[in-house]
Structure formats: structure tokens, C-alpha cells
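Supplementary Methods. Inverse-folding protocol.

Structures were first reduced to a C-alpha cell string of length 456. This string, shown here, constituted the complete conditioning input.
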């Protein structure tokens, strides 16, 4: 433990020295570095995706390529015109200037489910605010992580910036991560509940995430086939390891059989009998306990084999009719594999109540999905569901973290608010990694309301 403490102390000292030097860089110099980090991942997506699948042993190569390319370009597109150095806003009317200043040193805990794009995202956000960053990777991807960070450090060197602005723990461990998060200025924790809890207990400002369990509602006024395909794409993307992936689908009762046939038409294996449902439930959540690590990010065929259930060749997803919608049904929880549950509903209000019931079991504060063209229903769901994001008429797994087609901030860290024991209820962005000083001017000509006007 003494050696670990010494290693972390040395990394922190180098990072803080580098960060002070970085504060002399202009907005243009800063952005050039941020852009090239994203472009590196975009340009090397195929190699990085291949290594991610090989080392983590989960997910889908093609989807990881798409993730590397999609996230890198979306994040840079959202950052490229934003001011983050010096005076970033002048509100002349109210006499307030806003000045961006670095938070200092960021620790970023990275999950095995996203060992490339999460470090890229966090590094881009941290450097955009002229911070230094130290990555704490998952042990199952530390070789890939080391090579990725070495590439980022070379980019810094090419731009005559201090390489120690980005560092990584090469031999990751719980002790090293816990020591790191106590010695930095702010912590970004993307991973399991235990690590997020440690981050919030570190005594440092922390930005963490909660578990997902995306409830999907199909309204009555939609193109059901279009919605079904979007749901399948969302649930199967990267074999279901995305926290914003669809988990349950609520279907109008009079349309239930019709919609199930559409799922089957699009390559879904539907389970209606309780015996087969129990096989999958026992496989994914043994003894109704934590998720079985053997199913995380695995294919339909692997999961079916583990459950001792035969599925047709080419099956894209497994859809199981929920036996119950309460805690006695483990499948109401987050399933990090291409498996969903379904349930019929009567009124739209019933659908929202059913979705909220599942969220109360797990995933409160994260994301819900709605396919609807009824603005009144959209607003009703938005007002009643305890989620930080309600995504409309899109694949949730590829949209809730921000895309070129919506206004969510592109990110890999999705805050869940106080519902999920998080400090933010929005998508993590560079704005969460800067301090802002306000300059307030005195306006002698400002019209001051009388007491009577104030209290009228």
C-alpha cells in the first residue's frame, strides 16, 4: 500500500505541475489538442474496437467501431465553438462577465464496458477546461488503456503541451483508485455502484452515474414497425452493455399481439411461457441476486445456451413477457445483454405508472424512452417519470448520450440526479469541469423598482 501511495503522489505532483503550465495556453491552442484527441479515436476506430473486444471479451466489434467514430465526432462538434478559456460571456444588460477557470486535477474512473470512448470523452472535457486528468482504468482493459493514453500523450507533446496533463494508472487496483480519488480536485466516476459510492465518499467533488433501466412506452398513434426496429437496434447495440439501452417495453393491450408479431418479424425470440422466462431470469440474475457477469455484453446465442434454451439461428434479441411487474420479477431490472421484457397496458397513464414501478425497482433518475406523436402524452410522461432524460422516437442507447439528431450533450457519463444518488441530473459536459468567476459591475443608471412594485 505504501508503494501505491507513493506512485499516486508522484502522478498527482506531475499532473498539478503540468496543469499550471497549461493555463498559459490560448483557447485556440487548447481546442487544437482537444480536437486531435477525438480525431485520433475516430481515425483508429477499427483497431481500438478490435482490441476492446479482445481484451474486455464483451460487446460487438462493428458497434464499437460505430461508437468510437460517433462519439468522437459528436463530442468535438459540440465543443469546437464553445469558449472555455478566459472571459467566456459578457452580459452587458445585467453587468455580469463570466470567467472560466480550471478545476485543477480530474480523476476519471473508467468501466470495462467502455475502455476507449470514456477516457477519450473525459480527457476532451478535462482539457477543454485546461485541467489535468489521471485515468483509473478497469484491470481487464489496462493494456489497451495504456496504449490509448500513450497516444494522447504524444498528441500533447506534438502541441508542445506538457505530457503529464494526461496520465493513467498502469497497474490498476482498488487501492490505487481509492488513493487517487482522495488526492485530486474533482472525480468523474463512470462504472459500478460501488466505485461511484467510493467517489462520492472521497471528500472531493464527484460526478457519478447511477444504474440504468430504460423503460420504453409505445403510444397508440405511432408507426409500430418503425418503433420496433428502433427498439431492437437500441437494445442490441454492443450486445446491450450501454446503460441507456432499452430494457422494458410497454405496449397498448389491444395492439400487444400485433406488436409482438412485428418483433418476431424483425428477428426477435419471444418468450411467453413462465418456465422459459424463469430459465432466463435464473441465468441473468442467479438467486435473484446481482447480474451474472457471464451474460454482460454477450450475444443472444451465448445467453440462450447458458439458459439451456434453443433459439433460431440469426436471432437478434430475446423478448420475455413479464411474469410480474414488481420485485418478484428480477427481469424488471437492468439487463446488460440483448434481453428485454414486455407488458401490455390499458391507458397511457397506466403505462407511465408501470414504467415508474420498474424504475422504483432499479434505474430511477436515468432515462426513459417514449415513441409518441401526442404532445400531451409526451409532456405527461416528462412530468411524471423520475428520469433525467426522456428520449422521444429514437433508439435510446445511441441517443440518450447525445447525438447529431438531438439536443442532449454528447457524453459517456449520464447523471441521474438525487434519484440515482448523483450530483447532476444531466449529461456530463466540459461545463461541469470548470469553475466560473463572475465580475459584477455597478449600474448607476439601472431603474430600481419601488417597494410597492416589488411586492405588487
Amino acid at each position: 500500500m505504501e508503494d501505491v501511495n507513493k506512485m499516486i503522489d508522484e502522478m498527482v505532483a506531475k499532473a498539478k505541475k503540468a496543469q499550471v503550465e497549461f493555463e498559459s495556453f490560448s483557447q485556440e491552442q487548447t481546442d487544437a489538442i482537444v480536437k486531435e484527441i477525438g480525431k485520433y479515436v475516430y481515425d483508429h476506430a477499427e483497431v481500438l474496437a478490435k482490441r476492446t473486444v479482445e481484451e474486455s471479451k464483451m460487446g460487438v466489434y462493428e458497434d464499437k467501431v460505430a461508437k468510437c467514430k460517433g462519439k468522437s465526432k459528436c463530442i468535438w462538434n459540440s465543443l469546437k465553438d464553445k469558449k472555455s478559456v478566459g472571459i467566456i460571456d459578457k452580459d452587458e444588460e445585467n453587468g455580469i462577465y463570466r470567467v472560466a477557470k480550471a478545476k485543477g486535477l480530474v480523476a476519471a474512473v473508467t468501466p470495462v464496458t467502455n475502455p476507449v470512448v470514456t477516457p477519450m470523452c473525459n480527457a476532451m472535457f478535462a482539457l477543454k477546461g485546461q485541467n489535468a486528468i489521471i485515468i483509473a482504468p478497469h484491470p481487464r482493459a489496462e493494456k489497451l488503456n495504456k496504449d490509448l493514453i500513450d497516444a494522447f500523450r504524444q498528441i500533447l507533446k506534438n502541441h508542445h503541451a506538457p505530457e503529464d496533463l494526461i496520465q493513467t494508472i498502469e497497474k490498476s487496483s482498488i487501492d490505487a483508485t481509492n488513493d487517487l480519488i482522495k488526492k485530486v480536485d474533482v472525480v468523474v466516476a463512470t462504472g459500478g455502484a460501488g466505485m461511484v459510492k467510493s467517489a462520492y465518499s472521497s471528500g472531493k467533488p464527484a460526478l457519478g452515474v447511477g444504474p440504468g433501466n430504460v423503460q420504453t412506452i409505445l403510444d397508440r398513434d405511432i408507426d409500430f414497425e418503425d418503433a420496433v426496429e428502433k427498439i431492437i437496434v437500441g437494445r442490441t447495440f454492443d450486445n446491450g452493455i450501454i446503460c441507456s439501452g432499452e430494457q422494458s417495453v410497454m405496449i397498448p393491450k389491444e395492439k400487444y399481439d400485433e406488436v409482438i408479431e412485428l418483433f418476431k418479424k424483425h428477428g426477435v425470440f419471444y418468450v411467453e411461457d413462465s418456465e422459459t422466462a424463469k430459465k432466463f431470469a435464473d441465468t441473468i440474475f442467479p438467486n435473484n441476486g446481482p447480474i451474472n457477469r457471464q451474460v454482460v455484453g454477450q450475444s443472444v446465442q451465448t445467453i440462450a445456451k447458458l439458459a439451456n434454451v434453443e433459439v433460431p439461428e440469426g436471432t437478434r434479441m430475446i423478448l420475455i413477457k413479464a411474469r410480474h411487474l414488481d420485485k418478484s420479477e428480477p427481469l424488471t431490472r437492468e439487463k446488460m445483454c440483448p434481453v428485454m421484457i414486455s407488458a401490455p397496458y390499458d391507458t397511457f397513464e397506466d403505462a407511465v405508472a408501470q414504467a415508474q414501478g420498474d424504475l422504483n425497482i432499479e434505474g430511477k433518475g436515468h432515462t426513459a424512452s417514449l415513441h409518441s406523436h401526442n404532445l400531451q402524452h409526451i409532456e405527461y410522461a416528462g412530468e411524471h417519470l423520475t428520469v433525467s432524460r426522456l428520449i422521444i422516437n429514437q433508439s435510446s442507447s445511441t441517443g440518450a448520450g447525445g447525438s447529431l439528431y438531438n439536443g442532449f450533450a454528447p457524453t459517456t457519463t449520464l447523471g441521474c440526479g438525487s434519484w440515482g444518488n448523483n450530483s447532476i441530473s444531466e449529461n456530463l459536459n466540459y461545463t461541469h469541469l470548470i469553475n466560473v468567476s463572475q465580475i459584477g459591475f455597478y449600474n448607476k443608471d439601472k431603474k430600481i423598482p419601488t417597494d410597492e412594485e416589488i411586492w405588487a
